[in-house]
Amino acid sequence: MNAITTSTLDVRAQIIDAFNFRHATKVFDADRKVDDETFATILEAGRLSPTSFGHEPFRILLVQSPEKRELLRAFSWGANGMMSGTSGQLGTASHFGIILASTAATMTAGSEYLVDHYRHVKHLPEDIIDVFNGAYGKFQRIDHDITTDREITDWSGKQAYIVLANMITAGALLGVDSCPIEGFDMAQTTDTLGAHFGVDTSQWKPAVMFAFGYRAKEPEFPKSRRTMEDVVAWF
Ligand SMILES: Cc1cc2nc3c(=O)[nH]c(=O)nc-3n(C[C@H](O)[C@H](O)[C@H](O)COP(=O)(O)O)c2cc1C
Pocket around ligand 1: residues whose beta carbon is below 6 Å from it? Predict the structure, then answer.
């Protein structure tokens, strides 16, 4: 059994403090940048995130050029400040990005991409690769019935949200503010990624956007949540 030490209590307090500190930041202080080492730590938390079967069906696109950010403004209503009468997260965030989700082109069981991933990223022996192909194939076709391109891309998107959650929490622990963003038009974002960001949209679709930086002001409303009893059941 783990002894409860002073440092355990400190870490518990730090975690809860970080979760209370975090809020969905609408407007950042445009003059404050997250330093490179701090942002590298946030990215590392994303990269090291767990993914189903270890497939890592995501990529992180950072959009730092103001011109490139503006290409997203018209259809990214959750990030363009239309609700706050500001230039929004797009105009003020120190770091802005999009997490892409893999499509069926690569995430279908037995695909060339996955076999290459098992071989060269996970360093699995050939007989284990056969086991993975079989197990993932059954998971896809039978256990979860994920077979269409949309279903497979959405499954990849679920993994992308875990990545983002870890980045956000890492940020909060470091005193960095953030906002998850899914207020955007999926079709127009996909087209823009293809036309202006060199994304092969047959292989990658946008899952979720994010912004990091330092809050311009404190949140307007205190955090409100359902009670623990409402959201947790013990058996
Ligand atoms: C997946 C996801 C997408 C979100 N999309 C947006 C968005 O597009 N724009 C925005 O300002 N906030 C967005 N939010 C923030 C939520 O509205 C916010 O987390 C929620 O109201 C709770 O408030 P809090 O995060 O400040 O505690 C999003 C949150 C999540 C988890």
Answer: 23-24, 26, 78-79, 179-183, 208, 223
In this structure, what CATH number is given to the domain that contains residue 67? 3.40.109.10
The identity of residue 203, as a single letter, is Q
Task: Dump pLDDT digits (tens) for 34-50.
Answer: 999 999 999 999 999 99
Q: Name residue, tokens 């980045």.
A: 167
Bridge partners of 57, per DSSP, are: none
Q: Report CA(22)–ligand 1 centroid distance (Å).
A: 11
Residue 206: give the domain boundaries: 25-105+157-215
The residue contributing the CA closest to ligand 1 atom 4 is 181
> Percentage of the chain surpassing pLDDT 70?
99
Determine the distance separating the centroid of ligand 1 and the alpha carbon of 108, expressed in angstroms.
Answer: 31
d(C-alpha 98, C-alpha 89), whole Å: 13
